[in-house]
Design goal:
- With about 325 residues, the protein is of the alpha/beta class.
- It contains 13 helices and 13 strands.
- Among the domains are: about 120 residues, no CATH class; about 70 residues, Winged helix-like DNA-binding domain superfamily/Winged helix DNA-binding domain (Arc Repressor Mutant, subunit A, Orthogonal Bundle).
- The strands form four sheets. Strands 5-6-1-7 form a four-stranded mixed beta sheet.
- Helix 2 packs across helix 7 and helix 9 crosses helix 10.
- The relative contact order is 0.17.
Length: about 325
């Protein structure tokens, strides 16, 4: 069992973060062949052809992906945690470009062997150029929506942290990961030696990755990347249950009510439903007045969820998440 030993100060100083570069790497792993999570199937189908053309035009980038994105492993230069002062994708990408080629080549060697294209002095710059292409062409157009969903996920987990501690906040974050207590965080089920984190920053980063990964910049920074629950739903809007529900309260309100099987913020409902903020807010007020939805404050944010009456109206005895089961983690790293 692989786990990290985390000191009290490090745990208290840990934080959730949103990283454009980490999300770009998640997009790269999906385009490279990992099954997309349900909410990104349409996006993957739209972008894979252009991605393959981009790789075909650059043998170094193609070899980089083959070596750097493997089952149960991802290259270190793809898993660098963001810094607190980062503001843009290019702030993070700059540190990738600064990696010495010799370091990158050691990282990309497979069983001690390096594919001929990766022996080039341009291996780091070509890898960074590919990441910049993935960001510009496939992620940035959808970034406002993704960021809203990540923010809502963080609000939900922060509320769980305040109510039930780390065991509650980390529940279901990644397959194989759980809080063991006594400063021990199980990272995966593999038989890896424990790693002690002292005097370092610990980050939790939501992404659209179907499996997630861990990364570090020793000795000062460690990160756990996990699948964002709000992105695990299908591309299609949530099913509204029986036709009677939609006829009774209207199709938009029915869709929102079904989506509230787990706590969500207004911004997350906007991103998931595709309706505007004013429209979603108005429907939430009607649902609250009818007693089928309630809200509670989590820090500076407000989360909505169904009441027992709302559960019965949807036709379920108890709240249940619309999220699909997460597949086993794709890497041990390390």
């Amino acid at each position: 069992m692989g786990y990290w030993r985390i000191g009290i100060d490090e745990l208290a100083g840990s934080r959730f973060a949103i990283s454009p570069l980490t999300e770009t790497v998640a997009a790269l792993t999906t385009l490279a062949g990992r099954d997309p999570i349900p909410g990104l199937r349409h996006w993957a189908n739209q972008n894979r052809s252009a991605y393959r053309e981009r790789l075909a035009a650059d043998p170094i980038a193609e070899a980089f992906v083959e070596a750097g994105v493997r089952p149960r492993w991802i290259a270190n230069l793809l898993s660098l945690p963001p810094h607190r002062g980062d503001r843009t994708f290019h702030d993070e990408l700059r540190r990738v470009r600064e990696i010495p080629p010799a370091v990158a080549r050691r990282d990309l060697a497979v069983d001690g062997r390096l594919a001929p294209p990766l022996r080039s002095r341009e291996v780091v710059s070509r890898a960074a150029d590919l990441l910049e292409w993935v960001w510009t062409e496939t992620v940035r157009p959808d970034w406002p929506r993704r960021r809203q969903i990540f923010e809502a996920d963080i609000v939900t987990r922060s509320a769980k942290l305040g109510a039930g501690g780390w065991a509650s906040a980390l529940e279901g974050m990644r397959a194989g990961m759980r809080w063991l207590g006594d400063g021990r965080l199980q990272i995966n089920a593999y038989d890896n030696p424990p790693r002690t984190i002292t005097g370092a920053e610990l980050l939790f980063i939501p992404t659209t990755s179907s499996r997630g990964w861990v990364g570090w910049e020793e000795p000062s920074r460690y990160a756990i990347t996990y699948p964002c629950a709000g992105m695990l739903a299908d591309d299609e809007p949530p099913a509204v249950g029986s036709p009677t529900l939609a006829q009774l309260i209207g199709p938009v309100r029915a869709q929102i009510l079904v989506a509230l099987a787990e706590p969500r913020s207004t911004s997350q409902l906007v991103a998931l439903s595709g309706y505007g903020l004013g429209s979603v807010g108005g429907h939430l007020k009607v649902l609250r007045d009818a007693g089928v939805v309630q809200r509670h404050r989590a820090g500076r944010s407000v989360l909505y969820r169904r009441t027992p009456l709302g559960d019965r109206l949807v036709g379920r005895g108890t709240p249940r998440s619309n999220a699909r089961a997460v597949q086993p983690p794709g890497r041990t790293n390390r």
